[in-house]
Amino acid sequence: MPRGGHGDLRLSDGRRLRSPPGAVTRPTPARVRQSVFNLLQEQVAGTRWLDLFSGSGVMACEALLHGAAHVTAVERHGRAAAVTRHNLELVCHPPQTFTLHRREVLAWLRAWKHSAEPRQPFALIYADPPYNGGLHGPMATAIPAAGVLAPTGLLLLECTSRQPPATLPGWRLGSRHRYGGTTVLVLQQAVDNA
């Protein structure tokens, strides 16, 4: 749906964030964000959080607020990535760190897999691909292939409630949470992929 702006984008601590202009992104609603972090509770503190299809960066910012030690955000759109950087800089405080990659998610996952640099997998991944972009399946295949998620880590996959992915091979559904038009699937890698 077209958006000339996303209204008031606020974090759980009341801080106001920038929102990318136009219809490029669809920020995760406040009610969904609150529910996700209530669900995760203490699991976020001290972890490495990966935010795929970061958009405004609001989920990565919330992860920092909830004590994540490091956040990596991946967003391919230039204007959205600039907003993500601004928002993360607003929230990130030493010793917390963040990394922002302006790149298409599947290409970033392939590059991460083949990087010569030492890599530490993420404990938590939040992925919010375009609802009708056909990316849920390819991304769910690319994450285990890249080794980007720790064996005991969780993938939180945001999708439309009207047509959530039926099955994602290689993943075990831990729980499903519906918030009106938005559903969040909490997934773990199947044992043979871990």
Automatic annotation (TrEMBL):
Which top-level group of life is the source organism from?
Bacteria
Where is the sequence biased in composition, kind Basic and acidic residues? 1-16
The record's section on InterPro entries has: DNA_methylase_N6_adenine_CS, RNA_MeTrfase_RsmD, SAM-dependent_MTases_sf
Task: Using the UniProt annotation, give all residue ranges assigned to the region (Disordered).
Answer: 1-29
Keyword rRNA-binding carried by entry: no
Name the enzyme's class.
transferase
EC number(s): the record gives 2.1.1.171
Gene3D superfamilies, per this entry? Vaccinia Virus protein VP39
Keyword NAD in the entry? The reply is no
Q: One MF term from GO for this chain?
A: nucleic acid binding
Q: Which UniProt keywords apply?
A: Methyltransferase, Transferase
**Can you name this protein?**
16S rRNA (Guanine(966)-N(2))-methyltransferase RsmD
Write the lineage as a comma-separated list: Bacteria, Bacillati, Cyanobacteriota, Cyanophyceae, Synechococcales
Tell me the name of the encoding gene.
rsmD
